[in-house]
């Protein structure tokens, strides 16, 4: 991001850095068609499902913030939102969904279980009567995140002539608790967050025309858990027809710890969580959990990002999610769907910063070996042989490479491979730019580093990129917008970018171009023999 301006408040920068690191870490009734066309004037008013909303013109775009798209009953699918009278001011972000803080005692914004709102960003001066819509799904390891953190894609919207929509969805146990009692209520368990996202996509379909958007041309894109959400929606039979294209950023569909487990695994996780809160009787535990206050439901280490092994993910409940994303892709779930899939060159740096340095720990050779054995079990010896401490400058560097390759880079390749087998057209990239000045704690193209190149500001903080990085940012934004318009991300600045197997486009300030050594660089032959990572 270049050198920080000394006048910028330190607390705001700290919040931005926290959000970037944290990135590492909604069945609805039919709603009436929205009224067509915004009303001209200084305060644009649009009719949507539920009533009329008033937006705000700013920076060459029109913002409609905090628009309710559904209700979120606890541990149940989203429900239709109640209509409102008059014109609702859509000038501020809605409340975030309940979650623990990445940094204890630091809450980025107020929260509520009534959190299912969507933010929309629309070109003030559209170049055509109908524009593509891009729906962004935030990351945060399925325990963190909100749409307010991604609060201005202004340049992407204005210059790319696209509409960007950012919905909230439930995280942690609120979005992904699975118990047999829940399945007995209606078959759905552990997929409430995924249903929230689908409710938002249906809302976009039903209301896009009111903002000048094309409901038949929706691109779903997201990063980290947002990327896995995109993968899960591709695999979900209940999401069919809700989007036409997809971009998966650092959240591969294959062999990730965030991939949907079986109900057997998920029910055990849910039972263990319930027991830890004193709700251990299967006959009463669901009522017990529903009666607990929000703070008590968050009083569990499972609701924080503290390990590469996670508890809260979407679940293969047999209704909303019926297959793993990798297998679904290979079976044709994205047949003829254009896909962009990518990862960052130094993904592991974020997790060293979060799980080691932030706790005052620097990995030693002994700790690295113990970590690998605990995380990879029977595969640990193969991994330690392929990534010996002696091959790197430090045990921390060895650990960082294992996380980068095993959790992100090679899974991105396996996602590409599976999608191609199923008939999808795929463009692959590797982001290699550093948004931060050289530093020992969060160096290089860490996990989440590409996000500031897509959004103009994050949490109200403008992104201070260097001139070279800003050019790369414009090129990526133009490419993503081109993809939304045409189904191809190739632009004059990002060309050639062939949609060919084995080719990865390197994205950096100093070099942009195709490369064919990605698999060798990241030891993907080793990782191809490991069915589940983490």
What does this molecule look like?
The protein has 534 residues and is an alpha/beta fold. Helix content is 32%, strand content 16%. The chain has 17 helices and 16 strands. An 11-stranded mixed beta sheet has the order 3-4-6-8-7-9-10-11-12-15-16, sandwiched between helices. A hairpin with a 4-residue loop joins strand 15 and strand 16. The longest helix is centred in the C-terminal third of the chain and has 27 residues. It is globular. The N terminus is likely disordered.
Short description:
By secondary structure, the chain is α/β, with parallel strands linked by helices. The protein has 17 helices and 16 strands.
- Give me the secondary-structure category: alpha/beta
Strand content: 15-25%
> What's the mean pLDDT score?
91
Order of adjacent strands in the largest pleated sheet: 3-4-6-8-7-9-10-11-12-15-16
**What would the principal axes of the Cα set say about the shape?**
globular
Based on CA atoms alone, the radius of gyration comes out at 22 Å
- Main β-sheet description: 11 strands, mixed
Poorly predicted runs? 1-40
Task: Tell me roughly what share of residues is in helical segments.
Answer: 25-40%
Number of helices: 17
How many β-strands, per DSSP?
Answer: 16
* First-residue to last-residue Cα separation: 31 Å
């Amino acid at each position: 991001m270049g050198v920080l301006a000394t006048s910028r408040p330190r607390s705001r920068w700290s919040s931005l850095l926290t959000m970037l690191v944290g990135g590492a870490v909604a069945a609805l009734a039919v709603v009436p068609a929205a009224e067509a066309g915004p009303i001209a004037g200084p305060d644009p008013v649009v009719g949507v499902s539920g009533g009329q909303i008033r937006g705000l013109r700013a920076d060459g775009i029109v913002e409609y913030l905090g628009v309710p798209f559904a209700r979120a009953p606890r541990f149940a699918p989203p429900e239709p939102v109640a209509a409102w009278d008059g014109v609702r001011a859509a000038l501020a972000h809605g409340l975030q969904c309940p979650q623990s803080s990445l940094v204890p005692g630091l809450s980025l914004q107020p929260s509520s279980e009534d959190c299912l709102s969507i933010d929309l960003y629309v070109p003030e001066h559209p170049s055509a009567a109908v524009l593509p819509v891009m729906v962004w799904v935030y990351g945060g390891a399925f325990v963190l995140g909100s749409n307010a953190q991604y609060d201005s894609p202004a340049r992407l919207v204005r210059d790319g002539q696209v509409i960007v929509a950012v919905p909230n969805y439930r995280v942690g146990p609120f979005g992904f608790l699975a118990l047999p009692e829940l399945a007995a209520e209606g078959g759905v368990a552990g997929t409430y967050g995924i249903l929230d996202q689908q409710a938002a996509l249906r809302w976009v379909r039903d209301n896009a025309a009111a903002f000048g958007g094309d409901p038949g041309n929706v691109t779903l894109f997201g990063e980290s858990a947002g990327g896995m959400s995109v993968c899960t929606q591709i695999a979900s039979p209940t999401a069919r027809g809700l989007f036409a294209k997809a971009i998966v950023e650092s959240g591969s569909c294959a062999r990730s710890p965030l991939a949907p487990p079986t109900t057997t695994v998920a029910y055990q996780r849910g039972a263990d969580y319930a027991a830890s809160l004193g709700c251990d009787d299967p006959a009463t535990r669901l009522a017990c959990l529903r009666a607990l206050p929000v703070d008590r439901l968050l009083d569990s280490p499972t609701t924080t990002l503290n390990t590469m092994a996670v508890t809260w993910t979407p679940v293969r409940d047999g209704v909303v999610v019926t297959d793993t994303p990798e297998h679904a892709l290979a079976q044709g779930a994205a047949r003829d769907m254009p896909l962009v899939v990518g990862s960052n060159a130094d993904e592991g740096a974020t997790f060293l910063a979060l799980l080691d340095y932030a706790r005052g720990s620097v990995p030693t050779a002994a700790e690295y070996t113990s970590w690998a054995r605990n995380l990879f079990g029977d595969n640990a010896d193969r991994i330690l042989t392929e990534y010996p401490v002696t091959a790197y400058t430090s045990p921390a560097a060895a650990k960082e490479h294992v996380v980068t390759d095993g959790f992100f880079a090679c899974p991105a390749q396996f996602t590409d491979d599976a999608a191609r087998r199923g008939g999808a057209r795929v463009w692959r990239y590797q982001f290699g730019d550093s948004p931060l000045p050289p530093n020992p704690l969060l160096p290089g193209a860490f996990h989440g580093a590409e996000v500031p190149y897509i959004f103009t500001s994050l949490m109200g903080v403008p992104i201070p990129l260097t001139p070279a990085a800003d050019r790369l940012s414009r090129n990526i934004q133009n490419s993503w917008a081109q993809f939304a318009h045409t189904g191809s991300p190739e632009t004059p600045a990002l060309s050639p970018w062939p949609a060919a197997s084995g080719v990865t486009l390197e994205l950096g300030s100093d070099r942009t171009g195709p490369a064919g050594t990605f698999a060798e660089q990241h030891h993907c032959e080793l990782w191809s023999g490991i069915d589940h990572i983490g």
